[in-house]
């Protein structure tokens, strides 16, 4: 299994990059968001990867964080969602946006992904709504994984060009949501209720940090008079 690729970008396509790793070129399919965040041709980059194996095809899919890779895997467990459809959802929403849409039961947001119709979007929400809080809860640990720190911060070898750009701001927002959810769970709230409150708060205040999300979520969880 190829879990990570580090090298220099030789070519940028519409949905993939060709990464040279010590003379061997790997075609890695990426989301639109990831492609936009990657550096230019000739520059160094690093991506977590998932290898899709079929009888007549081997394909690598790349992700800037382990959280996004986890969501790609989870989306593919839904009947009718293949690797490219899962990537289309991540292109449209990002890992954090997908988590929020599924937690809130927002099938229309999922449907915004190219090639995802209303029935499939509804199936994604129905099948993953119960699993989304668990992924959200471990989101912070996935985003702060030492391997990710190495990908973003490690200096390039003497002969290489500057390292890849940091992960998009969505990664930080996902970490805030994960930390807020963890805090609410520690306060005794049920996972489903807490996840929905955090997702709603994050949608209403996209720039909120962990503390702000906790405050907003607690207001949403307060018994209505």
Automatic annotation (TrEMBL):
Keyword Nucleotide-binding in annotation: yes
InterPro entries noted in UniProt: DNA_helicase_Holl-junc_RuvA_I (IPR013849), Hlx-hairpin-Hlx_DNA-bd_motif (IPR003583), NA-bd_OB-fold (IPR012340), RuvA (IPR000085), RuvA_2-like (IPR010994), RuvA_C (IPR011114), RuvA_C_sf (IPR036267)
Pfam families: HHH_5 (PF14520), RuvA_C (PF07499), RuvA_N (PF01330)
Annotated spans, Domain III: 171-225
Entry superkingdom: Bacteria
Record function comment: The RuvA-RuvB-RuvC complex processes Holliday junction (HJ) DNA during genetic recombination and DNA repair, while the RuvA-RuvB complex plays an important role in the rescue of blocked DNA replication forks via replication fork reversal (RFR). RuvA specifically binds to HJ cruciform DNA, conferring on it an open structure. The RuvB hexamer acts as an ATP-dependent pump, pulling dsDNA into and through the RuvAB complex. HJ branch migration allows RuvC to scan DNA until it finds its consensus sequence, where it cleaves and resolves the cruciform DNA.
Domain-related comment: Has three domains with a flexible linker between the domains II and III and assumes an 'L' shape. Domain III is highly mobile and contacts RuvB.
UniProt cross-references to NCBIfam families, sorted A to Z: ruvA
Family to which this protein belongs: Belongs to the RuvA family.
Protein name, UniProt field: Holliday junction branch migration complex subunit RuvA
Lineage, broadest ranks: Bacteria, Pseudomonadati, Pseudomonadota, Alphaproteobacteria, Rhodobacterales
Gene name in the database record: ruvA
